[in-house]
Amino acid sequence: MHILVIPSWYPSPISPISGIFAKQQLEALARRGHQIGVISSILSRTGFPSLEEKISQPEYTLMQGSFRNRFPLLFGSTGYFWVKNGYEMYAEYVKNYGTPDLIHAHSSLYAGVLAAKINKAHHIPYVLTEHSSYVTRKDISSWNVPRVKRAFLRANINIAVSNFVKEEIVRKYVISPENWRVIPNMVGSHFFERTPTPLAGENFIFTNIGGLVDVKAQNVLLEALAICTNDHHSTIKLRIIGDGPNREQLKAQSKDLGIERHVEWIQQVEPHSLPDVIANSQVIISSSSTETFGLTLAESLAVGRPVLSTNSGGPADIITDEVGIMVEKNDPVKLADAMKEMVKNIGKYPIDALKRYAQENFHEQVVMEQIEDCYQTALDGGNRT
Q: Are 93 and 39 in contact (CB under 8 A)?
């Protein structure tokens, strides 16, 4: 099958880890024998390098090009130029590599809008996966609402990465739920290949992985840690991995709470090192107020470590009593109680059982089979409103 992938974000010299999930998924599709092409359109701001690449390799073909918004003060202009640039790249892709059987767009803004435009002009069926918390969490501009809704309505099949995403979009955009499937994000095989060993030392390490931004609510996590240490749980340590605009504010908060020595700050970890980071923690913890899925939680289970998360949306599809604990969001007291419970009962989460659960639900083969079924349904003309 010839599949053209259109991601709203994709790794580039400008942002090497942007949209890494789309890259990992299309590489998995290529390993399963599909012909894969990618067109990636990137807004180039002042000082960014110019991008114009055509990379043919055994796995897939990438066309990546940058564009400038010539009218940045004009409402809706970024989306207009993103789609315009992508449409021109599509024409060049077809000229060089042939017409795809199907398009897989990642996120409605703006890949889904572009896929809908191509579909209207050339009748290429498409599948649209929504990952973006922006589309579900925030009120997008009035300019984009009809474009997003049209992208969902024209898609042969819409995929949500969690039931939370599906329900939010169906409610927010008044769309029938019949045209939707829920398929989780894929966990790479290298996570399953890593098996943790007992950790030396007396410290009990919780690790939080994510951007230091409001929605990740690390401020609540720091408050919970302070409660734990005040309750004589001095062996609890917190490792926070990530960077973002709240970094200095959060570090100041840890100082004010008197828990500096209990917190380790790590700005960045290379993706290939994440299994080792997880294996060297007792628990992966999420304090977010909103998560469309919660990939680091699924990755933790694949390694064999239990998880603790707030009920922020996506994690409800991941966590059961057998693999971890879920508590209400924005409540440091309940989060602290759950952290203390984890310390007390860590032995109730056997490594093999956690890995088996992840294998059955998030492994590449399981997820790819579900996606391929969507592709075949779309090619057969099914599930379209």
A: yes
Q: Residues 303-319: what's their mean pLDDT? A: 98
Record the pTM.
0.91
Please state which CATH number belongs to domain 189-362: 3.40.50.2000
| CA atoms lying within 13 Å on the CB side of residue 375 | 19
Residue 47 confidence (pLDDT):
44
Q: How far is CA 1 from the centre of its chain?
A: 25
Domains 2-186+364-379 and 189-362 share a fold: yes
Max Cα-Cα span within the chain: 68
- Collapsing DSSP to helix, strand or coil, 252 comes out as helix
Q: Residue 369 above 80 pLDDT?
A: yes
Query: What are the φ/ψ torsions at residue 193 (nearest 5 degrees)?
Result: -75, -20
Q: If one looks up domain 2-186+364-379 in CATH, what number appears?
A: 3.40.50.2000
**What's the count of helices (H) and strands (E) in the chain, helices before strands?**
14, 14
